[in-house]
Design goal:
Blueprint (H helix, E strand, L loop, with lengths): L2 H30 L2 H27 L7
Helix pairs in contact: 1-2
């Protein structure tokens, strides 16, 4: 596995993790009412957007490099 392929997999897993954590934080805030969970959930969702932008930049920058 090349460094490009590993980086791609790592970014996608990070996006999925931050998305799930953000949704969990926002939903859990509804049942517990803790402000910290809401703040962490929103920050995680913002991180999801940031990682998605970075993924697009990464793919455009290294489109000429092979995955092997």
């Amino acid at each position: 596995m090349s460094l490009k392929a590993f980086h791609l997999v790592f970014i996608i897993l990070s996006i999925l993790f931050t998305l799930m954590f953000g949704v969990w934080g926002v939903v859990n805030h509804g049942s517990s009412g803790k402000t910290a969970e809401l703040v962490l959930g929103i920050l995680s969702l913002v991180g999801t957007v940031g990682l998605s932008v970075y993924l697009r930049y990464f793919l455009k920058k290294l489109k000429h490099v092979s995955y092997l």
